[in-house]
Design brief:
nine-stranded mixed sheet; single chain; D-amino Acid Aminotransferase, Chain A, domain 1; D-amino Acid Aminotransferase, Chain A, domain 2; about 25% helix
C-alpha cells in the first residue's frame, strides 16, 4: 500500500496518498482528480474569469496584498463576486500549502463566473468557481538568470481596459509564448500596432536609457505587474528615475540594459533579443539582491 500523510482541509481533515497533488476547490482541499469544473462553466467556455500567479516562499505568498488587490479589482471589473473573504482565502492558502508540503513554489488562484446558460450574457450564471493550486518553483528561479528572447508576431491593441487584469482569456500570450518555444527561446516580447514594446507573454519589460529606468505601463497597454510595481518602488526609494513609457523595439535594443520581471522568477536579465546581443546593466545585480532580501523577510515574518 502507498504511504499516507495527514493533511488538513478547511473545516476538516483527511488522509491522502503521498505525492498526490491536492487543490483548493470551492472551499475544500481535495485530490486534483476529484476537483471537477462544469462543462457549462463560463471560465471554460469563454475565459470569463480572472486569475493571479503568486510566488510562494517559506510557504507564504510574496507580495500578497498587491496580488489580492489586483485580483479583487479584476473581479469587480468583470462583475464577479469573490465567494470567500480574504481571511478565509488566507486560511485556504495555508491549508493548501500544508497539504502539498510545499515551501518554495507558485500559487495560482483562478476565479470564474461559474456555470450558466449558453451564450455570452452573464445572466443566469450560478455561484462563481474558485480554484487554487500550488506548483513547484520553475527550475533555476532561485538564482539569477539570463534570457534570450524574440519579438512576437502578435500585436497588442493599445490600452485595452482588460490589459490591466489577468483575465482567463490569454490567447495572445499563448500564441506569443508558442513562438518562443518553437524558436528554443525563453520568452517572446509583444509590441503594439506601432511597433513599440509593451510586455512579454508572461512578464513586464524594463530598459535603461540615459540613467533612467523605462517600463511600459497600463496607459501603454501593459499589465501592471506586481513584481514590476515592487521594482519601481525599490528603484525610486534609491533615487533612481523611473518612467512609464514605451519605445520602438529598435530603440530598446540600443539601451544600456534590458530586464524583465515576473512573479514566478522575480527579475531576469535579457542578454539577447532576436539574435542581437544586448548591453548588460550592473544595476540588475543590485535589484536581484534586494529581491532576495525581500523574499527572506517574508520567510521570517509572522504575518503576511
Amino acid at each position: 500500500m502507498g504511504q499516507t500523510r495527514r493533511t488538513h482541509g478547511i473545516g476538516g481533515s483527511g488522509f491522502v496518498r503521498a505525492g498526490m497533488m491536492m487543490v483548493y476547490w470551492n472551499g475544500r482541499i481535495v485530490p486534483a482528480e476529484q476537483a471537477c469544473v462544469s462543462v457549462m462553466d463560463r471560465g471554460f467556455l469563454y475565459g470569463d474569469g480572472v486569475f493571479e500567479t503568486v510566488r510562494l516562499t517559506g510557504g507564504r505568498p510574496f507580495l500578497w496584498k498587491q496580488h489580492w488587490a489586483r485580483w479583487q479589482a479584476g473581479a469587480s471589473f468583470l462583475g464577479i463576486q469573490i465567494p470567500v473573504s480574504e481571511e478565509s482565502l488566507r486560511a485556504g492558502i495555508l491549508a493548501l500549502v500544508e497539504a502539498n508540503q510545499i515551501g518554495e513554489g507558485v500559487l495560482r488562484l483562478t476565479l470564474s463566473r461559474g456555470p450558466g446558460p449558453r451564450g455570452y450574457s452573464p445572466r443566469g450564471a450560478g455561484r462563481p468557481t474558485l480554484v487554487m493550486t500550488v506548483h513547484p518553483i520553475p527550475p533555476g528561479a532561485e538564482a539569477r538568470a539570463t534570457w534570450r528572447v524574440c519579438t512576437s508576431r502578435v500585436r497588442l491593441a493599445g490600452a485595452d481596459p482588460l490589459s490591466r487584469f489577468k483575465t482567463c482569456n490569454r490567447l495572445l500570450q499563448v500564441l506569443a509564448r508558442a513562438e518562443a518555444d518553437a524558436a528554443g527561446l525563453d520568452e517572446a516580447i509583444l509590441l503594439d500596432s506601432h511597433g513599440c514594446v509593451i510586455e512579454g507573454s508572461s512578464c513586464n519589460v524594463f530598459w535603461v536609457k540615459s540613467d533612467r529606468l523605462v517600463t511600459p505601463g497600463p496607459e501603454q497597454g501593459a499589465l501592471p505587474g506586481v513584481t514590476r510595481g515592487w521594482v519601481m518602488a525599490e528603484a525610486r526609494a534609491r533615487g533612481w528615475e523611473v518612467v512609464e513609457a514605451t519605445a520602438p523595439a529598435e530603440e530598446v535594443w540600443e539601451a544600456d540594459g534590458v530586464f524583465v520581471t515576473l512573479s514566478t522568477r522575480g527579475i531576469v536579465e535579457v542578454t539577447e533579443w532576436d539574435g542581437r546581443p544586448l548591453r548588460r546593466w550592473p544595476g540588475v545585480a543590485e535589484l536581484w539582491g534586494l529581491y532576495e532580501k525581500a523574499l527572506q523577510a517574508v520567510q521570517r515574518a509572522e504575518a503576511w
